[in-house]
Amino acid sequence: MIGIDIDGVLADSDPSFRAHLQKIYQRPFLRKDVVYFDYQKCFGLSLVQIEDFWQTFSAQGKWEKIKVIPGALSVLKHFNKKDIILITARPDYLKKETLSWLKMNKIPYSRLLFMAGESKHHDVLAHKLKFDYFIEDRFEYSRDLADLGIKVLLLNYPWNKKFGEYPGITRVNSWKDIGKIILK
Ligand SMILES: [Mg+2]
Q1: Cα of 46 to ligand 1 centre, how many Å?
Q2: What's the CA gap between 5 and 159, in Å, rounded?
Q3: Which residues contact 124 (CB under 8 A, 6 or more apart)?
Q4: Which residue, of 27, 83, 98, 181, has the greatest Cβ tally within 10 A?
Q5: Cβ atoms within 10 A of the Cβ of 113, count?
Q6: At 145, is the secondary structure helix, strand, or coil?
Q7: DSSP assignment, residue 11?
Q8: How far away, in angstroms, is 117 Cα from ligand 1 center?
Q9: Per-residue pLDDT tens over the stretch 30-79
């Protein structure tokens, strides 16, 4: 059984977020500057600006327009969908958009969990999930999952680079790398 995150793992969300920031604030927003999970902090935005950004991103239906990360579907098709569980840190109010995105993009999965606490290991324990692998892009969640003995594959991004290596976490660059590990 594998656990998979959505944003940054299945959904190529960061380019969509930055394109929308660029559109509303008319200046460049570069990936290399996304060194935290918090776009407000990365780009020095005010609270009003970041709230306006998320509000208009949702209002303009942009959650549904996010692209799938290349290579994800060709790896997932090797699994029975009952063995795929998604755990996202998205807020509950994005449930409708998230479900429709998963359906539109034909992502196979059996369960979708919205993270209940401040990290994903709580969900694993609460639902007694026996993951062989978890695929994630946020270091903090990866570390907490790895501490439970789950083999974590962490996709490299500017926002997790500074944390370096950790026992139980394997860094990968793409779904091609992920496929080589989980399909062997
Ligand atoms: Mg993510």
Answers
A1: 23
A2: 15
A3: 3, 87, 131, 145, 148, 150
A4: 98
A5: 16
A6: helix
A7: B
A8: 15
A9: 999 999 999 999 999 999 999 999 999 999 999 999 999 999 999 999 99
pTM to 2 decimal places = 0.96
Distance CA(36)–CA(116), nearest Å, equals 21
16 CB burial (10 A radius; 0-12, 13-18, 19+):
middle
Q: Which residue has the tokens 């860094």?
A: 171
Compute the distance between CA of residue 18 and CA of residue 59 in angstroms, rounded to an integer.
Answer: 16
Helices (H), the chain: 13-25, 39-43, 47-59, 72-76, 95-104, 121-126, 139-146, 175-182
Task: Please give the structure tokens belonging to residue 32.
Answer: 């290399």
Ligand 1 centre to CA of 91 (Å) is 12
In the reported structure, the alpha carbon of residue 8 is separated from the centroid of ligand 1 by a whole-number distance in angstroms of 5
Question: What spacing in Å lies between the alpha carbon of 118 and ligand 1's midpoint?
Answer: 14
